[in-house]
Design a protein that fits this description.
The chain has helices at 7-18, 24-36, 75-83, 136-150, and strands spanning 44-52, 55-62, 69-71, 87-89, 107-114, 120-128. By secondary structure, it is an alpha+beta fold. The protein has a single domain (7-151), classed as 2-Layer Sandwich (Beta-Lactamase). Strands 3-2-1-6-5-4 form a six-stranded antiparallel sheet, sandwiched between helices. Helix 1 packs antiparallel against helix 2 (24-36). The termini are far apart.
């Protein structure tokens, strides 16, 4: 499947739009919009924020409705938050405990959003209605954008 995202351009656009911004919700809204419209594979693009211990709540997103609350113990988003590891899932039906927020989702990429002092802010969730839509390059480049934007380190 050809990749259509120009990650260098996407990173530059996000950098220019978010320069100097520190409000996490404003950053999430801008990134959700820019990432979602960067590639036709991205059917739903959004953030789930850590709002309580072991709890994610819906944040800014693009696409149809998302789940409102996801515990760390459930689904792909929960796994990314719990382990702080990117989850690249080529077939959501094969993922134990997958939460079907949208029946059209076939594959998913979820990346933990980590800020200064190693604080887990939330996760970036990208769903596709195509199976096996995401690559390791997608994951790596989006991780880099998130780290830069949210000040990990």
């Amino acid at each position: 499947m050809p990749m259509t995202v120009d990650y260098d351009q996407l990173a530059a656009t996000i950098r220019s739009l978010t320069h100097g911004e520190t409000d996490e919700v404003a950053l999430m809204a801008t990134l959700a919009c820019e990432i979602h419209h960067a590639d036709e594979r991205f059917d739903w693009t959004g953030f789930y924020r850590v709002t309580a211990p072991e709890t994610l709540k819906i944040g800014p997103y693009q696409g149809g409705h998302g789940c409102l609350v996801i515990p760390f113990s459930r689904g792909v988003c929960g796994a990314a938050a719990r382990t702080r590891q990117t989850q690249l899932v080529p077939d959501v039906d094969a993922f134990p405990g997958h939460i079907a927020c949208a029946s059209s989702t076939r594959s998913e990429l979820v990346i933990p959003v980590i800020g200064p002092q190693d604080r887990l802010i939330g996760v970036l969730d990208i769903d596709s209605n195509q199976p096996d839509a995401f690559t390791a390059k997608d994951a790596k480049r989006l991780e880099e954008i998130l780290d830069e934007c949210f000040g990990r380190g």
